[in-house]
Amino acid sequence: HNTNVTKEPKAFLLRCGTLLREKPGTDFNISKVILHDMFSLPNYDIALLQVVGKIQLGTPAMDKITLPPQDTDLAPAGAMTTVIGWGLNSTQSPLLPEKLQTLDIPVVDRPTCISDYKNYNPPEYRISDYMFCAGYDEGIRDSCSAVH
């Protein structure tokens, strides 16, 4: 969702080979930002970043991920999934975490998810047909607030 602010490649830098924001890794400039054809916040909120140069894959710290086939069903309610991100640790502090955040959370069934978010504001961020929910009933742990 950071690419919705700007599609200007110079606004981004890809750092590979480290889980720490300030630790040196291998940095790549971005030559192109490619948004999903159907991108419209909050749906299809994903982009590809084309790097300048070549990323050397196959090391423990840098490798590709395997995506499931296009026709793969979503994980059923209760199945565990992992969220990863650099989001804020607190709404009280604008500081980003030093370490990449990861958390294992359960998939939530769609009716519960829709019910939980029905009064969420702004309304354009309510659960759409293109989303799924994951998290805990307590709502206190998510990709931005828990460190593993």
TrEMBL record:
Pfam families: Trypsin
Keywords associated with the record: Hydrolase, Protease, Secreted, Serine protease
InterPro entries found in the cross-reference section: Peptidase_S1_PA, Peptidase_S1_PA_chymotrypsin, Serine_Proteases_S1, Trypsin_dom
UniProt superkingdom: Eukaryota
GO BP annotation list: proteolysis
One Gene Ontology term, aspect cellular component: extracellular space
Matching PROSITE patterns: TRYPSIN_DOM
Residues annotated as domain Peptidase S1: 1-148
Location in or out of the cell: Secreted
Main location as per UniProt: secreted
GO molecular function terms listed in the Swiss-Prot or TrEMBL record: serine-type endopeptidase activity
PANTHER family in UniProt: SRCR DOMAIN-CONTAINING PROTEIN (PTHR24264:SF65), TRYPSIN-RELATED (PTHR24264)
Protein name: Peptidase S1 domain-containing protein
Organism encoding this protein: Medioppia subpectinata
